[in-house]
Structure formats: structure tokens, C-alpha cells
Design goal:
The protein has about 120 residues and is mainly beta. It contains two helices and nine strands.
Length: about 120
């Protein structure tokens, strides 16, 4: 089932939403991740002085080139547990939506905002 056809999730309250810590950060490095099962990059994202830089594996290599990613602001979940992906430890989940081909399109603010800002 394609992601855009998933049914709406169960209703939650605002306190449940606040438990997911979604922050904005700027991608400062994007490197190929040839060991990944699907085309991916290893990203380093700067979330500002309070959080620092964190790393993520992102399956976006079919839609983006590294030079298109560096300097781009993205939204990411910063309070999920770390996840081992092959030889790489992913520390945050960078967020995106599926396009018509079920490939990830990254989400971020429409204009520059301070790194580390929390989604509300």
C-alpha cells in the first residue's frame, strides 16, 4: 500500500503530540551510504548549540544529490532511540513525505529559522 493511501491514524491528544520532539536543523554534510538497502545518504544535521550535530540515514538518494542537501533546513525527530543501520548509527529521523513514485521529499521551513526550533 502506498503511503499516501494510508488511513488516518487514531486520534491523539496534544500531550501525545508534544512527546514527539520535532526540531529544525541544517544539513552540514551529506555522504553516500552504499551499504544501505535502498539508495541513501548519511546526513550530518546541525540543530544549534543546545542539541548540537546529529547523524541520520536518509533514503533520499533518488531525489537529491549531496550538493542539493548541504545548507538545506529539514525537520527531524530528535528524541527517538538511536538505530543501527548496517555499519552506521542513526541518531535522528529526518522527515519527509512520499511523492507520486513513493520516493521521499524532505520537509523543512519555507524560510530560514534558527536551528533547534521545535515544531508546534
Amino acid at each position: 500500500m502506498a503511503a499516501q493511501h494510508e488511513p488516518i491514524g487514531a486520534e491523539i491528544g496534544y500531550p501525545d503530540f508534544r512527546r514527539v520532539d520535532i526540531r529544525v536543523g541544517t544539513i552540514v554534510a551529506a555522504e553516500p551510504f552504499p551499504e544501505a538497502r535502498r539508495p541513501a545518504f548519511r546526513l550530518t544535521v546541525d540543530f544549534g548549540p543546545a542539541i548540537g550535530t546529529r547523524r541520520s540515514s536518509a533514503q533520499v538518494a533518488t531525489r537529491y544529490r549531496p550538493e542539493q542537501l548541504v545548507g538545506r533546513q529539514v525537520a527531524a525527530v530528535v528524541n527517538f532511540p538511536k538505530k543501527q543501520i548496517g555499519p552506521f548509527m542513526s541518531e535522528v529521523l529526518v522527515l519527509g513525505f512520499p511523492d507520486g513514485a513513493d520516493e521521499v521529499v524532505l520537509i523543512g521551513p519555507e524560510r530560514a529559522v534558527p536551528n533547534g526550533g521545535r515544531l508546534f
